[in-house]
Structures are given as structure tokens and as C-alpha cells.
Amino acid sequence: MGCVLSRPGSSGLVSESRDEVSTKIESNRREANNVSVVTKTETTESTSVAVVVASNGEEVRNDDEAVVDHKEENGDVKEKKPKGERKKSTTKPDPRLSNPPKNLLGEQVAAGWPPWLTEVCGEALNGWLPRKADSFEKIEKIGSGTYSNVYKARDSLTGAIVALKKVRCDTREQENLKFMAREILILRRLNHPNVIKLEGLVTSRMSTSLYLVFRYMHHDLAGLAASPDITFTEQQVKCYLKQILSGLEHCHSRGVLHRDIKGSNLLIDDDGVLRIGDFGLATFFDAGTRQTMTTRVVTLWYRAPELLHGAVEYGVGIDLWSAGCILAELLSGRPIMPGRNEVDQIHRIYKLCGSPSEEYWRKIRLPSHVKNANHTAKPQHKRKVREAFKDFSPEALSLVDRLLALDPLERLTATDALTSDFFMTEPLACDPSELPKYPPTKEIDAKKRDEEYRRQKEARKVQGESGRRIRPRERAPRAMPAPEANAENQSNIDRMRLITHANAKSKSEKFPPPHQDGSLGFQVGSSRRLDPSEVPFSSNSFTATYSKEPFQTWSGPLAPTEAPESTARRMKDINKDQIKRKQFNQITSPLEGLNLWQLFLSVQSFRFDHLGRQFLSSPIIN
Ligand SMILES: Nc1ncnc2c1ncn2[C@@H]1O[C@H](COP(=O)(O)OP(=O)(O)OP(=O)(O)O)[C@@H](O)[C@H]1O
Predict the structure, then answer these.
(1) The model's pTM
(2) How far is CA 5 from CA 26, 45, 109, in A?
(3) Given ligand 1 and candidates 150, 216, 273, 541, which is best to mutate, with the most ligand atoms within 8 Å of its CB?
(4) Distances (CA, A) of 472 to 224, 475, 564, 612
């Protein structure tokens, strides 16, 4: 009979679990060396101890073994002090790292986790056993994003309906694995009713696929808001916003920036409970430490001005800006700043929120190459938030105004916003359970409606039908996703993009089409294996529009399409772009502080395939 004892190295995951004692019991039996064990992880204020309970039920705990073989990052072996002399480490763990001790990794591999996964996020696997793919049955594909496909599935063990997010894991792409690991680490750090909870992971020792298991959510806010039959009352808007802010407050208090708050990432279940989802762009941050991060985050329409200005040091304000945009959108029934590209976006912000003051430029920390150019922007716009939203209640107007403060330091925090008059005055927010029951509605449903409309339109064209038919519903264009998010590593992005262009005409070609990968009722494990040439990157779809018509509601007509381009032509474009990029590099626009290359790409880089899906035709910018 043997016992395995381990304690994970200190980590953000553990150190953040203050004020709570959580006990997780993984009761899966492991039959190894005739030992039957139950792994139990207790997380207390500052420790997390993996305890193995021997089959006789005796709980064996041995903290003394904890630091054996633990190597420092510089390779030095920690000296083991006798018991009693050991002091608790006072240095804070780097929450961005997952570096549990080697003995824990070995244990995880023995438990069935693939070694590559234990290496990148062993910390997050602590206390869990992998679920087998054949214990889920796929029902249908319910969403697709930049890095993943999402499926509705049935858990054969419990019968519960779950959402499985399949992320592509090419183990040769270390950087991409890190991003995936970051999402998992972040999700395990969070525990709040308004934040999606990672319920488990599906993988196997031999597999390169990974599925994240979540509770199934029937709706997303983008889908509900785009539905022609749904109009929200102020009480309902308050209910949704309160939940968004509560979720954000929790994330921020745990040192997590979401960095992609938008309607389609706000998932809602049948009981009206809203959970913030998609932490693919989220990052750890420490408000007290200077830390540079990428600016290429947040879907364009919800992107804060400091990001558009190129600030690489930012904080919770970027999520609050997005929340402000969503609040105004929910109350007005349409996106408030649907920019077509970064330059257009920033102009829309200036027109609504006024041009930044001299003080703003003095305060904002920008990289030196953009700093000098920014404040020469002309013309100077006056702030018009109050005029633009004069129909809102005074409390709603005041909250929108303070969330859309240009200066991130003047923007309300989630906690401030939750205590604002908006939530204190009648009509008060309704309870989530009082929200109407809607039929399942997701942004993907709106996309399907658009596709169906386009298909019919094209069929009519072929038949030579004339005359304008009324669309099922006039819609505003959809939000442009953060195109190059996870762009912390520029070279990685450049490489990914080049491969992406070389290998795929559009996102649809990198994922199997729905009839292959999303077909009904087959087991999760039976989906095809990833082709190593597939890379976990693409720009998102269904986005920009050139329509000058005023929009009515959230979603809108598909962008004008181009005939599909041949791969050869696109490769030619890539080469041309590389030459152009060289020419444009180092030159800075006097207008907005945007690199000229950025400006150039913003205007011309979005191309559309025959289904109206957008892809970037140019190498990345940052
Ligand atoms: N728990 C869930 N329940 C139901 N549907 C979900 C769930 N999680 C995600 N989805 C659906 O799948 C879509 C894509 O998921 P998600 O946003 O997490 O993926 P992504 O690859 O990070 O996407 P993006 O590129 O938009 O950031 C969501 O918009 C949502 O409609």
C-alpha cells in the first residue's frame, strides 16, 4: 500500500482564497499499485494541501514533504530546514505562473492528465481528475469563437446538460498553450454566482484536445437584446447590470481583468442569472504594481479610450468602460459607438465623450512613440453624453456619464457603480427569477437568422426576382471582436497570422463545418483529431458593416461581401503587406497617435469571404 503526498507550491490560486475554507473532494478511485485513493484538497487562507486518504479511510497529511525537490525558478534547490524553523514565505507568488512542484506534476500525469497540460497549468488541475471524452454526448454546436467551438452536450454520468468549450491545443505552440492555461487558471481562481464556473476538464493522457466543461447557459445578452420580440424595462436593465457589476467586482477583487466584456460574453440561464463568461482574454493584474499589457483587447465597440490611445498600463477601468457601453446600449436599444475600425471608434468616442483634455494626456501613461502625437488631435469635441441620452432617467444618465469618463481614474469602479443612485431609486432592480422566460437565444441564433436571410436573398437574385423585401428585422451591425487579442507576444501573433493565412481561407475552414463537427448525438471523443497545421488563431466573424443607414437594434445586416479569394492571391497579399509594413513602420500619425501602419490596416484590412465572414488580410499590428 502506498501513499502519495503533495502540496502545491504557493500560487495565486491559493493566496487569493482568503476568507474561505473550501473543501473539494475528488472521489474518483485510482487503481494504481493496488492502492485505492481519494484525493482531497483543502484550501485555507494560505495553504492548499493535497491529502491522500488511504483506503482504510485514514487521512494522511505530511506537510514536511511539501518542499522536497522544489526548485526555485533560477534552478537553485531550496534548503530544507528542520520542522519548527521553517517560516512561512512572505514573498507573494507570481499569480501569472503555474509552477507546482515536480512531484505534483508526476502525480497528475499518473492520474491521467496529459503531461503538456500539467506543465502549463498543473496548479489549476490540483484536486481534479480528468473526465473522459466518452462520458459526454454532443448534442449540437452552440457557439464558436476565435479560439474555440462550443457544444451543448449531455453528461452521461449525471444526465446534466453542459456546455463544452473545445479549445485547440497544438503542443508545438507553447505561447498558445500558455493562453489556454491562463484561461483555466483564471477560471479556477474565480468563484461567484455571476461568473461562469469551470466545472471540469475533459482530456486524456494521449489527447491533444481539451474541453472545458461549463454549466449550460440558455441565453446570452447579445442574443436577447438582438431578438426582435424583446424589449427590456428599466427594472430588467438594472437587474442585468447589477449582475454584471457584481461579477466584475468579484473578478477585480481577485486580481482579474476580463478584457472582453460584451453582450455575447454575458451568459444568462433560464432562471435569469447572468454569468460573465469567456475569460479567454482575461489576465491577472495587480493594482499596486506597474505592469505592461497588450492594448489589443476588448471588442472594438466596447474598447476604452486608453486602449485605443495605446496605453499599455491600464486597470479595472477598461472593464467598467465596456459596462458603461452596455448599460447605454440596453437602455437605448442600440450600440452606442459602433465603430468600423480603430480610428472611427476613437472619433465616435470623442464625439460623444469630448476630446481628451491636456490633463488627460499629462496623466495617461503611453509608450513614448505615441505620446507626443496624441494631443495634437483636432477638432476638439465637447462632451455630449447628457444630450445624447437625455431620455434616460437622471440616475441612469449619471451612471452612464461616470462609467464613460475618458479618464480611467475618474471612471467608477464596480463597487462604486453598485452603490450609485441608479440601483437605489425606484424602480428597483427586479430579482433574476422575476425576469421573463425567453426561448433559448444566443448571438449565434442572430447569426443564423442573418445567414438564412442572405441565402434567401441570393436565391432570389439567381431567380431574377426584383424589388426590395423587408428583412425579418432591421438590425445594427454586430460588434467587432478584439481581433488580435492575446497579443502579448508579437512574434507569436505574426507567426500565427501568417500560418493562418497560408492554411485557411476563413475561420470556417479551420474548424470543421457544423455538419462534420457539430453533428448530433455522437460522443465527444469521436470528433476528429486536430490537424497540426491548425493554429488557434483567427479573427472573428460577422462584424463590420459599411451601411450608412441608421441602425435600429443591436444586430445588423451582414457586411458587403467579396467573392472568395484564392489562397494564392492571399499569399500575394501577405507578401505585399509585409513590404508595406516595412515602409510604414516607425512612422507615427500626427492625428491620433496611431502608427500609420495601424491606420492603413484599419481602413483596408478587413476582407470578407463569401459568407460575409471577416478575416484579416494583413499581418498583425500592435
Ligand atoms: N456555458 C455556456 N453555455 C451556453 N453557451 C455558451 C457557454 N459558453 C459559451 N457559450 C456560447 O459559445 C460562444 C463562444 O464561447 P466563448 O465566447 O467562450 O468562446 P471564444 O472562443 O473565447 O469566443 P470569442 O472569440 O467570441 O471571444 C458564446 O458566445 C456563447 O454563445
Answers:
(1) 0.64
(2) 15, 20, 15
(3) 150
(4) 16, 9, 26, 18
Q: Which amino acid is at 550?
A: P
**Residues annotated within a binding site for ATP:** 165
Mutation test residue for ligand 1: of 164, 195, 278, the one with most atoms within 8 Å of CB: 278
Cα–Cα distance between 500 and 296 in angstroms, integer? 18
Number of separate helices (H) and strands (E) present in the chain = 21, 16
204 secondary structure, DSSP code:
-
Active site residues: 260
25-50 CB burial, b ≥16 within 10 A, e <16: ebeeebeeeeeebbbbbbbeeebbbb
For 265-294, write each residue's pLDDT tens digit: 999 999 999 999 999 999 999 988 888 999
| Beta pairing partners, 151 | 141, 164
Cell numbers describing residue 309 = 490611445
Q: What ipTM did this prediction achieve?
A: 0.96
374: enclosing H helix or E strand = helix 368-374
Minimum CA distance residue for ligand 1 atom 12 = 143
Among left, alpha and beta (phi > 0; psi -120 to 50; other), residue 261 is: beta
| DSSP per-residue codes, 168-191 | E--TT-HHHHHHHHHHHHHHHH--
Q: How is residue 245 written as a grid cell?
A: 457589476
Q: Which residues are annotated as a binding site?
A: 165
What amino acid occupies position 173? E
Distances (CA, A) of 315 to 59, 255, 266: 44, 10, 20
What is the b/e burial string over 65-91, where b = at least 16 CB atoms within 10 angstroms of the residue's CB?
Answer: ebbeebeeeeeeeeeeeeeeeeeeeee
Which numbered atom of ligand 1 lies nearest the CA of 148? Answer: 21
Query: Whose Cα sits closest to atom 18 in ligand 1?
Result: 278
